[in-house]
Amino acid sequence: MALVSIKNLTRIFDVSKPWLNRVVERREKAYLTAVSDVSFDIKEKSVYALVGESGSGKSTIGKMLVGLLRPSEGSVEIRGVDLAREQDAARVDAVRADIQMIFQDPFASLNPRWRVRDIIAEPVAARGGDTKGLSEKLLEQVGLSARDAGKFPHEFSGGQRQRICIARALASEPKLIVCDEPTSALDVSVQAQVLNLMSDLQDDLGLTYLFISHDLTVVQHISDRVGVLYLGRLVEEATPDDLFDNPKHPYTQMLLAAAPQLGSFGRDVPPPKGEIPDPINPPSGCAYHPRCPLAQDICKAERPLMRDLRGAKVACHMAE
Amino acid sequence: MTTPILSIRNLTVEIPTRHGILRPVDNVSYDIGKGEILGVVGESGAGKSMAGNAVIGLLSPPAHIAHGEIHVNGQRVDHLHGDPMRRLRGKEIGMVFQDPLTSLNPLLRIGDQLTETILAHLDVSRAQAEERAIQALDEVGIPGARERINSYPHEFSGGMRQRVVIALALCAEPSLIIADEPTTALDVSVQAQIIALLKDLCRERGTAVMLITHDMGVIAEAADRVAVMYAGKLVELGPVRDVLTTPRHPYTDGLMGSTPLASRGKDRLHQIPGAMPRLDALPTGCAFHPRCPFVQEKCRHDPAPVLTDGTGAACWYPLDKKAEVA
Amino acid sequence: MTDMPQSPDTPIAVKDPSRLKLALDSDFIYTFKRSPVAVVSFVVVVIMVLAAIFAPLIAPYNPFDPGSLNLMNGFSKPMEPNQFTGDIFWLGTDDQGRDVFSTILYGMRISLFVGAAAVLFAMVLGITLGLIAGYVGGWTETIIMRTADVQLTFPAILVAMLIFGVAKGITPVEYRDQMAIWVLIIAIGLSDWVQFARVVRGATLVEKNKEYVQAARLIGRTSPAIMLRHILPNVLSPVLVIATISLALAIIAEATLSFLGVGAPPTQPSLGTLIRIGQGFLFSGEWWILLFPAVTLLTLALSVNLLGDWLRDALNPRLR
């Protein structure tokens, strides 16, 4: 059974101006559909990567998964428990203890007034657990020194802070960690260290990751399965090798072509056309059709459903 | 070689602090020729932006140029302040920063910002300046330039805004553009567009570009030559193909190896141990020696050689092997 | 972390550097030492506060002990022997023969106590309401902040006078003098909480969106715990600045009210009361009765204000 099962997940934000402005300017209420009808499963002890550009809804999905946001429609089930609808508080609490999150900005995700020891132990302390020696042990596990426990966050570099965040995420012995762009604020050489550490911890502790990133190249190492998001919709799902060698959705193809490559000196390929549309008024049918080289009439009229295609899943009328 | 557009010689920027003097840029020399794109690459804190800021006179005190010379088109500029510096910025040097929102005045229509810049630097009438502004927007690929000239910055998307910033940087026809992480805040697809645009415009006009970035991929695609910086020092300089495929400095080698692109198909990413030292805690000898896999006794004591002749690696024992780059 | 063997000899018991030691070593103390204005005003404030606290020990006379007063000493000039008794008073005496230097020391006591207590009251009220408004948002925020806006449209001194008047109306006559000081504190405090609330709300809005707060929510920390343990320590810097500047303003507000005759009673005169008494003698040539309390008030308020100004610059991260 899948550890996480996401079904028809949708999240709509009310982005209307204040009531008075709406009346004066005669505007309608405005809604932004950040996540639209997304379904996927995450197998236990695997790494699922969600990839997309800004506005793709990848972080919103992560927040709904950990319970920081409620879904508008659809459900997130973790070990069969729907966090947003489950009535039994004990079951919710048990599931919640199994989920942790690592954030993007290592400078904002640690309380600057707390000592590292208290930061790391907080998930356990909040539940009244025994925290003696816990932080020191975890610090060594993530490659820092036990002596660092008494320091404050500002004494560490970005990469070290991200290690502290990982230590905090591990404190409550979770099963699932949602990693929201954990390395995009880090330098390349440090990014490699953190990715390797996360990969090692996953093997050692049998963790499950949901790895959120804007960078396809980063996720290929760590992930077992990749989902590509565009404007809140899942457009393709495949294994990383399949996705890189044989992308099926035109958007995935474009993303891979646009990513800078080390061997492509003075490459003069025509850059991709157009920009990500306004998510408040998304295009009809397939959201990618205004930029798509393959677009036909059906793409404007009908939203493509996810379908199986040679081992991968793709939401495109034209892909074959 | 003809006179380079930008010539930096032994540039040292110092910041006096209570813990002593920090050198975010330490004895750095490089040139950029006409129509050339020099990629300046390094991790955060390597001093790459600080060098760019020194050229345009935007060092924020107490940081200041302590030694060295900067020449733009043969004119010495490192001692300029106030009005002469302002005239130089815009006329000779255009700037593109990471965040397009902060480079544009949110209260002015973009047309007015462009026209003002043109009028300040070129000897043309207002009508001509406006015509030029429209032309500039057209050149950077903004559809319907004639109508959009009356728009405010917030009415543009992030990518379009960065195009406006490039138009603003180019409209007075400077001979040098300093682009500091111009695509870092943008999505991959838009980044590809902006890089292509920068490349095209500079090739056509022969503008020299200092492209400051942390992204090796961007450097590979856009730059002609590349300067690699580490802890304030220039560690390697050379044609982009040579530096990226056969890096001679162990740091460049490690940096190339740790990009996920380079280790495709491997189980683990190559990693450089440790982190770049803080400027107030630089190791003795070569600043890279504590992280260097090829460290020798000499590296621990003798400061690394200084790059002066335009290519090569600032290393006592430069690598000679072929790097495994795709 | 179940499989991590805990070696018994792990050197965990490293003593953390104390917060005081860290503070003394900080940039904050460093910039303080290098700012002559800050050092001088700090020294002046400390001397005045100590003088006020130890007034009964320092003052050569007890001006409020009728037994020690000698009417013959009335209107002694500063530093000159009294024409009847030959006693020398440094700063002269008033009409009743009270030593001006001693009355100033006792007056400063009242002024500083009222000022500090009023600011403390305003601070507690303002921080609480500001934290709640910023963190909870919605209607709670609207009600708190609109109340603050309405209050801001009245001059603080008017608000204080209004509260003072109402309080005077409802307290029995026999308690009026005893209650006067406390009413003064509440009146000034209530007129001053708005700026604390506004600043704390603004800072809370920034902090609550930072990832460390999300991390705490994720763990299941309750809202009061997040407000008190996570957000409050991080919004205190601007509060400290405002508190200092408010102290100067509160001392002046108290002096103004007392000068207008609605503040400290003549039995417990503050600096303001002394100035009110003194101004009656200005045109008859006894200038010292007015001048010395006025100069004291000015020095006190100015020093506190300069200290506040420096503090604002030193704690502003953008200026460093």
Automatic annotation (TrEMBL), chain A:
InterPro entries per UniProt: AAA+_ATPase, ABC_transp_ATP-bind, ABC_transporter-like_ATP-bd, ABC_transporter-like_CS, Oligopep_ABC_C, P-loop_NTPase
Keyword Ligase attached: no
Keywords: ATP-binding, Nucleotide-binding, Transport
Recorded GO CC terms: plasma membrane
GO biological process, one term: transmembrane transport
Domain ABC transporter: 10-256
GO molecular function, one term: ATP hydrolysis activity
The keyword Cell cycle belongs to this UniProt entry's keyword annotation: no
Family of the protein in this entry: Belongs to the ABC transporter superfamily.
Main location: membrane
Pfam family, one: oligo_HPY
SMART domains: AAA
Membrane association type: Peripheral membrane protein
NCBIfam families, alphabetized: oligo_HPY (TIGR01727)
Protein name: ATP-binding cassette domain-containing protein
SUPFAM superfamilies the record matches: P-loop containing nucleoside triphosphate hydrolases
UniProtKB/TrEMBL annotation, chain B:
Keyword Lipoprotein part of the UniProt annotation: no
This protein's UniProt keywords: ATP-binding, Cell membrane, Membrane, Nucleotide-binding, Transport
Domain ABC transporter: 6-256
Keyword field contains Cell membrane: yes
Protein name: ABC transporter ATP-binding protein
SMART domains attached to this UniProt entry: AAA
CDD domains the UniProt entry points to: ABC_NikE_OppD_transporters
Lineage: Bacteria, Pseudomonadati, Pseudomonadota, Alphaproteobacteria, Rhodobacterales
Main location: membrane
Species name: Sulfitobacter aestuariivivens
Family: Belongs to the ABC transporter superfamily.
Entry-linked InterPro entries: AAA+_ATPase, ABC_Ni/Peptide_Import, ABC_transporter-like_ATP-bd, ABC_transporter-like_CS, Oligopep_ABC_C, P-loop_NTPase
GO molecular function: ATP binding; ATP hydrolysis activity
Topology in the lipid bilayer: Peripheral membrane protein
Single biological process term from Gene Ontology: peptide transport
GO cellular component, one term: plasma membrane
Record localization: Cell inner membrane
Automatic annotation (TrEMBL), chain C:
Membrane topology: Multi-pass membrane protein
Subcellular location: Cell membrane
A GO cellular component entry from the record: plasma membrane
Classification via Pfam families: BPD_transp_1, OppC_N
Cell membrane keyword on record: yes
Keyword Transmembrane attributed: yes
Keywords tagged on the record: Cell membrane, Membrane, Transmembrane, Transmembrane helix, Transport
Superkingdom, taxonomy of origin: Bacteria
GO biological process: transmembrane transport
ABC transmembrane type-1 domain segment(s): 108-308
Main location: membrane
Transmembrane segments: 37-59, 110-136, 148-167, 179-200, 231-253, 287-311
Family membership noted in the UniProt record: Belongs to the binding-protein-dependent transport system permease family.
Protein name per the record: ABC transporter permease
